[in-house]
Amino acid sequence: VSHADLGEMEALARALHDAEETRDQAIAYLQSRETELTSQLSQTEAELRAAMEGLREARAEAEELRTYIGQIEQQQHG
After folding, report:
1. How far, in Å, CA of 68 to CA of 50, rounded?
2. CA distance 70 to 10
3. Which of 48, 45, 47, 27 is closest to 37 using CA atoms?
């Protein structure tokens, strides 16, 4: 094995090591991002459920008020 070959092998080994470090950093970043996004999604889903429940309650209350107003109008005209 020549001196040039050893130098080339060392350069390839360094490049491989750098590539593996970059890959590991990318994987760690993606895992962190996935955790963050999963958390945001869970929070958003909880907020959506709360908003939908509030909307259901508001619709039920509006329907009760419509019924009540209808009854009052019937009593006034009846």
Report:
1. 27
2. 88
3. 45
Complete DSSP assignment for 7-63 = HHHHHHHHHHHHHHHHHHHHHHHHHHHHHHHHHHHHHHHHHHHHHHHHHHHHHHHHH
Helix (H) or strand (E) holding 69: helix 3-77
> CA 67, CA 78: separation in Å to the nearest integer?
16
67 three-state secondary structure: helix
2, containing H or E segment: none
pTM: 0.65
Higher pLDDT, 26 or 4: 26
